């Protein structure tokens, strides 16, 4: 095979999925097979099996895979007609369903290896010899509805990974361990940040005091920075009449993600899935002049969108969330300046939260149906491109990847373990301005259509919080931590002095708490470390006599004794600089 690259790995992983399916059929001859693609970092295959799989089953499947691979079996491609394909997969209902959906007059591609045959477009490796038996690993089993439909059978999905070398596999497994240690759901419980109560409603987040404190800090900083950057902040209702959603087009194009209406005074009201139409109604409360523009309006608006229960995932996929929406409404002459300003502001906020590795994707006009004049699309797209180049943001062109209503920039943020998260969107919207007939009075006195740019910077606060937890592994920077310092008395006789230190810290604007438990000193320190509290301030006889604290960091570094005033000055500077410690 050619030199190593992502495409080559994808082919290896796809072929490994077929080998896994063969191994499963060896163990369960009556198994029904579904689909088995390569995915990022690995592969999966869905099976309808007579019983739930165990970890021991995965080990046995993996052992059989290695035996199959060592047989150096060739992958053979064959094209057959529909009837022949149906005969080959007789008794395999999922394959039969897929075959019947294919065009009748087109040949169907299948692949054989050893004793296994699968419906597949390919490509595959030449033979199983090109799969390194020491560089494969089955990772887990999960439930998956056939074709993602909750009304269809629940299948068992086996996830696996494959690499060129054992060293690459070992590095990947180590990275998986790190990701698991940073899982926001586990840390959410450990640090008492949030919870989800399925019995009260799936996908709905309960913010605990610690999580609520961090959210308040994020929101306060968000507002402060928006005001400093020329935004005004709006508050809008949570529900709106059906007229609003008919006018915006949501009922025509987005209804499957909206909750059922509630009838009030014989009229249908919907919980809002988006904030945009409400901002437009505020715009239309008065005649706007070119002298009034640009308008920069932002809102932390809670919205509700239906997601299938199978895709809900902690804070990252929810049904109720707070979106940090903004709309910039401006004239054609102001577009370039406003887009540059919006991008610059977005980068500034991400840097403040400790994210430096950012890549952009510029999505252009899709082929086929779209709204808006060609000249407006060209100007909008060019303004996005110029802003990216001005700020030297690395970017790729997503040709034809824009929404039907306008081009956009998506910013993807890379976290501490190398994963990309799609977060910020800067999106032109030529649709809503037309639907709501937005106008302003131009310099010559004629009505003109303004440009409207939708911008979600952090995305949803819930998803952003999930990213924060996983990026920092729960060890938040001092300015964001709900509790910045734990004052730890060595013995009960030191409690009064510890409480005095706590009061001084609080009066200086730091978040501090005294450990009043009867635990031994080592246990108190250990508990503070488990809570990832930045500073542990140990106080005993010596510290009480000299008005000092013995400072330990959550990294286990010991800074020694220092005056309370010195510690306060140090901690406040770290907070002001938004540093980790």
Give the class from helix and strand content and strand pairing. alpha+beta
| Major sheet details | 8 strands, mixed
Distance between the amino and carboxyl termini: 49 Å
What is the number of helices? 18
Oligomer: single chain
What is the CATH architecture annotation of the largest domain? 2-Layer Sandwich
The neighbouring-strand order within the major sheet is 11-15-16-23-20-19-17-18
How many separate domains? 4
Low-confidence stretches: none
* CATH homologous superfamily annotation of the largest domain: Bira Bifunctional Protein, Domain 2
CATH class of the largest domain: Alpha Beta
Helix percent band = 25-40%
Q: What amount of the residues lies in strands?
A: 25-35%
What is the CA-based Rg, rounded? Answer: 29 Å
Mean pLDDT: 95
CATH topology of the largest domain: BirA Bifunctional Protein, domain 2
Strand tally is 28
């Amino acid at each position: 095979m050619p030199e190593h690259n992502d495409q080559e790995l994808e082919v290896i992983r796809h072929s490994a999925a077929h080998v896994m399916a063969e191994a499963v059929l060896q163990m369960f001859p009556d198994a029904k097979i579904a689909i088995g693609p390569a995915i990022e970092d690995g592969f999966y295959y869905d099976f309808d099996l007579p019983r739930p799989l165990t970890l021991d089953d995965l080990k046995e499947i993996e052992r059989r895979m290695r035996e199959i691979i060592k047989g150096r079996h060739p992958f053979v491609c064959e094209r057959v007609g529909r009837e022949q394909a149906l005969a080959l997969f007789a008794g395999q209902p999922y394959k039969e369903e897929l075959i019947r959906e294919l065009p009748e007059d087109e040949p169907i591609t299948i692949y054989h290896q050893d004793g296994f045959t699968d419906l597949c477009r390919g490509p595959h490796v030449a033979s199983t010899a090109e799969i390194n038996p020491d560089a494969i690993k089955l990772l887990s089993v999960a439930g998956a509805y056939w074709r993602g439909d909750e009304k269809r059978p629940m299948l068992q999905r086996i996830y696996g990974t494959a690499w060129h070398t054992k060293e690459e596999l070992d590095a990947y497994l180590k990275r998986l361990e790190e990701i698991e240690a940073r899982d926001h759901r586990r840390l959410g419980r450990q640090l008492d940040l949030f919870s989800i109560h399925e019995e009260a409603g799936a996908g709905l987040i309960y913010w605990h005091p610690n999580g609520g404190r961090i959210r308040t800090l994020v929101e306060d900083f968000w507002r402060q920075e928006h005001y400093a950057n020329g935004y005004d902040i709006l508050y809008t209702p949570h529900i709106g009449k059906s007229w609003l959603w008919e006018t915006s087009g949501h009922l025509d194009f987005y209804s499957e993600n909206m909750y059922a209406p509630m009838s009030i005074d014989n009229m249908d009201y919907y919980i809002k899935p988006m904030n945009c139409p409400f901002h437009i109604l505020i715009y239309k409360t008065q005649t706007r002049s070119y002298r009034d523009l640009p308008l920069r309006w932002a809102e932390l608006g809670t919205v509700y969108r239906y997601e299938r229960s199978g895709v809900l995932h902690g804070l990252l996929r929810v049904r109720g969330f707070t979106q940090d929406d903004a709309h910039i409404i401006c004239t054609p002459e102001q577009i370039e300046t406003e887009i540059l300003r919006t991008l610059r502001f977005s980068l500034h906020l991400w840097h403040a939260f400790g994210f430096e590795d950012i890549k952009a994707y510029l999505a252009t006009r899709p082929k086929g149906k779209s709204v808006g004049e060609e000249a407006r699309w060209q100007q909008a797209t060019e303004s996005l491109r110029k802003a990216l180049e001005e700020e030297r943001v690395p970017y790729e062109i997503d040709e034809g990847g824009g929404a039907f209503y306008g081009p956009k920039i998506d910013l993807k943020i890379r976290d501490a373990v190398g994963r990309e998260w799609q977060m910020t969107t800067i999106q032109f919207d030529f649709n809503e301005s037309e639907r709501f007939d937005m106008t302003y009075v131009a310099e010559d006195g004629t009505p003109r259509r303004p440009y409207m740019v939708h911008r979600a910077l952090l995305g949803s606060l819930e998803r952003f919080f999930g990213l924060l937890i996983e990026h920092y592994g729960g060890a938040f920077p001092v300015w964001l931590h709900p509790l910045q310092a734990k004052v730890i008395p060595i013995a009960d006789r030191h409690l009064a002095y510890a409480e005095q230190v706590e009061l001084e810290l609080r009066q200086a604007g730091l978040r501090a708490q005294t450990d009043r438990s009867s635990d031994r000193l080592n246990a108190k320190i250990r508990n503070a470390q488990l809570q990832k509290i930045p500073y542990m301030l140990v106080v005993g006889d010596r510290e009480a006599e000299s008005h000092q604290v013995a400072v330990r960091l959550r990294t286990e570094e010991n800074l020694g004794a220092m005056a309370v005033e010195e510690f306060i000055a140090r901690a406040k500077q770290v907070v002001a600089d938004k540093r980790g410690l």
